[in-house]
Amino acid sequence: MNTIIKSLFLIACAISVFNCHAQSEGHFTPKVVYQSDDLVITQVSGNAFEHTSFLQTQDFGNVPCNGLIVRDGHEAIVFDTPTEDKGAEELIKWITEALDCKINAVVPTHFHNDCLGGLHVFEENNIPSYAYFKTVELARENKLAVPRHSFKDSLLLQVGARQAVARFFGEGHTRDNIIGYFPSEDIMFGGCLIKELAAGKGYLGDANTMAWSATVRKVKQAYPNVKMIIPGHGTRGDKELLNYTIDLFKIP
Fold first, then answer.
1. CB-neighbour burial class of residue 19 (10 A; exposed 0-12, middle 13-18, buried 19+)
2. Whole-structure pTM over 0.70, yes or no?
3. In angstroms, rounded to a whole number, what is the distance separating the alpha carbons of residues 51 and 64?
4. Mean pLDDT, the chain, as a whole number?
5. Fewer CB within 10 A of the end CB, N or C, for the chain?
6. Distances (CA, A) of 147 to 23, 138, 194, 236
7. Cβ neighbours of residue 206 under 8 Å, at least 6 residues apart?
8. Between β-strands 61-72 and 75-79, what pairing exists: parallel, antiparallel or unpaired?
9. Strand 40-43 relative to strand 48-57, pairing
């Protein structure tokens, strides 16, 4: 009987170790951790969360718009704001209270409202905003909320003991579109530069369709180990989103 008990104990320990190893290897089951009429937050890894708000458009209806939160310890960084003030207020409250995190920065990934529509709520909460210098210029020209700080090419942001990257690779959806990357978990926020699988080309009013495919090829080359990609709209996926976007805008 003692032998059987010992064997069962060893099996239980092995299963526990396997489960812990699976979590560390990225086998995380995404789960919704907050939901309201204006905002949905989904935990997609141990330290990353997708936030989704909604934008009513004339051509495409009520469009879900994604962003990314990354955290380490008691610090967080947000890529893209929710589309409106209410969602932005909810997001800030959830991060500060539910996650118990200070928001070190918010980074709009281009100048459209689906990226910075709630920016002034972050400013009212004294949260620093950073954007590619062309985003600052275009936001000002279009009389939108203007990020306070600008950068050229790339920006490294500290979040706890880890870092997050914001980087410009070239034109595509807009002249200023950037991507965000969280190296410790190999998670990318592609913004509107990257399309979900089976998506159409979407809004092209500010696009450079001739450069789009080449820009995404540079992203793919820079981050060959990416495990998860969150597009600006639609369903997250893996590097196949890069391949799909490259093919979608490939020059004949």
1. exposed
2. yes
3. 10
4. 91
5. C
6. 36, 11, 22, 26
7. 112, 173, 174, 175
8. antiparallel
9. antiparallel
Q: From start to end of the chain, where are the E strands?
A: 31-35, 40-43, 48-57, 61-72, 75-79, 102-107, 130-132, 149-151, 154-159, 162-168, 178-182, 187-191, 228-231
Q: Tokens 């209270």 belong to which residue?
A: 97
Would you say 165 and 80 are in contact if contact means Cβ atoms under 8 Å apart?
A: no
Token pair recorded at residue 18: 């396997």
Position 191 pLDDT exceeds 80: yes
pLDDT at 1: 43
| Residue 6 to residue 14: CA distance in whole angstroms | 12
pLDDT in tens, 160-181: 999 999 999 999 999 999 999 9
pLDDT at 5 over 70: no
Closest to 154 measured CA to CA, from 169, 139, 136, 140:
169
Helix (H, G, I), strand (E, B) or coil at 141: helix
pLDDT digits 0-9 by tens, 81-130: 999 999 999 999 999 999 999 999 999 999 999 999 999 999 999 999 99
**Which tokens sit at 208?**
């450079």
